[in-house]
Specification:
Layout: E1 10-17, E2 22-31, E3 34-44, H1 51-69, E4 73-77, H2 85-104, E5 108-112, H3 114-122, H4 129-140, H5 149-176
Helix pairs in contact: 1-2, 3-5, 4-5
């Protein structure tokens, strides 16, 4: 594909898999067809703490991520119907905090359903969590499967947005230049070695070491 000046931009996406007890997060950098993880982990709050305290802790840690990495986009999993009402409420509360903090920080906020994420990352809307983890590992060029599953889901959310955004960009380029193949919009794994950034406070699990992230 011929290079179009200004068409390839560096985009930082913070993926959030919302939850009050465990909130997965991942910061992924997209640059053209490449993607690499800068941070990946889980924010936790003690179930024994009062609800207002847990919400305040989660809010503070999400805010710290936003300050540390300054993402342009925050991708949050869309809250769908759940049989467990209590779980649905806590997920909704965590999702609301993430979106409100992102909006306050001036980020674009997007939401994707679990099926949309599975389709974008694994090519199959009914993919298992294990299949999603394998594809996240492949797309980000990781040496091992991303763990825990909450963090992998957050990375999948970020990758989903990058895939959608890149596809839209490729469609625009195709319209301007018939010779531009739409297939060039697909993300390629990135190789390299490095250390993932560990950014937030006491409720954060240690971030997983991932290749391709700057020290």
């Amino acid at each position: 594909m011929a290079h179009v000046p200004g068409s390839v931009v560096r985009v930082f996406v913070l993926g959030i898999d919302p939850g009050l007890t465990r909130c997965g997060y991942s910061v992924v950098e997209g640059h053209g067809r490449r993607a690499r993880a800068l941070a990946l982990g889980v924010l936790t709050t003690p179930a024994t703490d009062p609800l207002p305290t847990r919400l305040a802790d989660l809010q503070r840690d999400i805010r710290a991520l936003l300050v540390e990495f300054s993402p342009q986009v925050v991708a949050v999993e869309r809250v769908l119907f759940q049989v467990n009402v209590r779980t649905a409420m806590s997920v909704g509360q965590a999702s609301g905090i993430a979106m409100a903090e992102a909006a306050s920080a001036g980020c674009e906020v997007v939401q994707y359903s679990p099926n949309e994420v599975k389709q974008a990352v694994a090519g199959y809307g009914a993919a298992t969590k294990e299949q999603v983890q394998v594809m996240v590992q492949t797309l980000l060029g990781l040496a091992t499967l991303p763990q825990p599953a909450d963090a992998a889901d957050a990375a999948a959310l970020a990758l989903t947005h990058l895939a959608v955004a890149t596809s839209l960009t490729a469609s625009s380029l195709d319209a301007a230049s018939p010779a531009s193949p739409a297939a060039a919009a697909r993300m390629a794994p990135r190789s390299g070695a490095g250390q993932v950034k560990n950014a937030v406070g006491r409720t954060q699990r240690p971030a997983q070491s991932l290749p391709g992230a700057p020290r």
